[in-house]
Amino acid sequence: SHEVDLVDALPIEVKYVGSVTEKDAVGLRACMRACSFRNGLLLTKDKEDVWRVPEGKITLIPVWRFLLKGA
Q1: Dist CA 58 CA 51 (whole Å)
Q2: Are the C-beta atoms of 28 and 11 separated by less than 8 Å?
Q3: How do strand 49-53 and strand 11-15 relate by DSSP bridges?
Q4: How many whole angstroms separate alpha carbon 64 and alpha carbon 71?
Q5: 69 pLDDT band (50/70/90 cuts)?
Q6: Is the pTM here over 0.90, yes or no?
């Protein structure tokens, strides 16, 4: 089964691990597909990137940066 950690106008998945691969975004991509989201957010330990996937765009940012933007 797949899970997404938070959905608030944007599906968000948290993967706080040393190495993140596209396999870690399976649940996020499923949510994007099912709910017709074109963007998703993958919170990571330290990786920043943008992945283009068939469902749209997944932005990877470190959790600490996400928390600072919300402060």
Answers
A1: 5
A2: yes
A3: unpaired
A4: 11
A5: confident
A6: no
